[in-house]
Structure formats: structure tokens, C-alpha cells
Amino acid sequence: MKGRRSWLVTAAAMLGCAVTLALGFWQWGRAQQKLELQSAMEAREKLPPVDIREVLAAPDIAPFQHRRVRLRGTWGAPVVFLDNRQMEGKVGFYVVAPLQVDGGAVAVQRGWAPRNFERREQLPAVTTPAGTVEIEARIAPPPAKLYAFAEAEQGPIRQNLDLARFGAESRLPLATQFSVQQLGPASEGLSRRWPQAGSGAEKNWGYAFQWWALSALIAILYVWFQFVRPSRAARAPR
């Protein structure tokens, strides 16, 4: 019976060490992926700006992801305020509006605006210039989706943005494969310090070391209770 229990403890310890080691390496790999993505983004951002008409006409926009682009056009409607979005650790809105350009229309993530948490229905003071505007932006995926009920997708304040539905609302030939993030200094009531893809790698490293520390703790406890403690008890005077 004692031998069987010892084998069960050994198997449990080995399984625990294996799982926590694997989870640590997985978190380490996630950190490396984020750093590689950030490096690729920085390399693409240094390339000359691409023509938005070329992007709109391309069957696959993957080669253009994270490239800079200059756009010239007029702002359309509606303007959507995506809730629960963070910039520099603060929670507020990502402001998205369609921009009609030569060759089509693009959803522009214009920037971030703070939220009034005392009057949650109040929209921030964001101005939209009339007439033709010129902006510099970065080609990016659509805003990340957060959990929301279907009825939360109406009105100016929303949790998520479906580009196909957004294009129908705007009555413009909106591109649905990508959006762009407007670059430049703060203006029009908006901040544009967009989070980088590599941000958070430190968090993954921290998780990795936590899993490895847990693996080491399991190994130490196993050795202590299975070998060191019984050996000391056997040598103790009776």
C-alpha cells in the first residue's frame, strides 16, 4: 500500500512539473511572438507610405498590414465611439469614422477620447473637420472585439464595430478587410498614442517565471517529503 502511494505521489509530481514547465514555455513563446510582431511592424512602418488606392484594389491586404498610408478625402457618418478601450492605462473610447477617398472609403480609427464616468451617456468633445482633409495613418486590423449583447451595437456608443454593417450605415463603399489608425499628435479632442503589438511581452515573461517557479516548488516539495524527511526520521534517535 505504501509503495503504491509513493508511485502515485511520484506520478502526480511529475505531471505537475511537466504541465507547469510547458505553460511557462508557452508564455515565453507568446512573449517572443509579440516582440517579433512589433519588430515586423516597426520595419514596415519605416517603408514609404503606400497608395490607398493600391490597398483598396488588392485582393489580399496582408502585404500592406502596418504600412503607413496618406489619405485625402472627406469625413462621413456615423461617428462611432467604441467603449472600454484603453490608451496609456486609461479607459475611454476609440473614435471611428468613415473617410471617403478616391477609390472607395475606409474606416478610420481617429484616436482615443476620455469618458465621463459620472454621465456615461455623454459623448466627449470631438470635432470632425468639414471639407477635404489629409491624414497620415497606419493600416491595421479592425478594432478588437469585446463581449457585447447584440442590442449594444446600436447608436453612437458601442462595444464593437462590424465593418460590413458600418459600411451599410455610412452608405459608402467601405473596405471591410482592414481599417486604418490615424497617426500624429493629439488634436480634435483625440489622443493617438496607440498601443504597440509588442506591449505586454513583459507580462508574458512574468507569467512564464511564475509557472517555472511553481514547477520548481513542486519538485522541491516532492524531494523533501519523499526523500529528505524520511531520511531524517530514520536517522533520528529512538
Shape: elongated
End-to-end distance, in Å?
25 Å
Strand content: 15-25%
Helix % is 25-40%
> Please, how many helices?
4
For the secondary structure, the number of strands is 8
Order of helices and strands: HEHEEEEEEHEH
Mean pLDDT: 89
InterPro entries: Surf1/Shy1, Surf1/Surf4
Membrane topology: Multi-pass membrane protein
Keywords: Cell membrane, Membrane, Transmembrane, Transmembrane helix
Organism: Ramlibacter albus
Summarize it.
It is found in: Cell membrane; Membrane. Helix content is 39%, strand content 24%. By secondary structure, it is of the alpha/beta class.
Task: Outline the structure in words.
The protein has about 240 residues and is an alpha/beta fold. The protein folds into 2 domains: about 1-40 and about 200-235; about 50-180, no CATH class. It is built from 4 helices and 8 strands, in the order H-E-H-E-E-E-E-E-E-H-E-H. It has helices at about 1-45, 50-55, 165-170, 200-235, and strands spanning about 50, 70-75, 80-85, 90-100, 105-115, 130-140, 155-160, 180. It has a 5-stranded mixed barrel. The chain is elongated. The protein starts with a helix and ends with a helix. About 20% of the residues are buried.
Which labels suit this protein?
238 residues, alpha/beta, 5-stranded mixed barrel, 4 helices, 8 strands, membrane, SURF1-like protein
Write the layout of secondary structure elements.
Blueprint: H1 2-45, E1 50-51, H2 52-57, E2 68-75, E3 80-87, E4 90-101, E5 104-114, E6 132-140, E7 157-158, H3 163-170, E8 179-182, H4 201-235
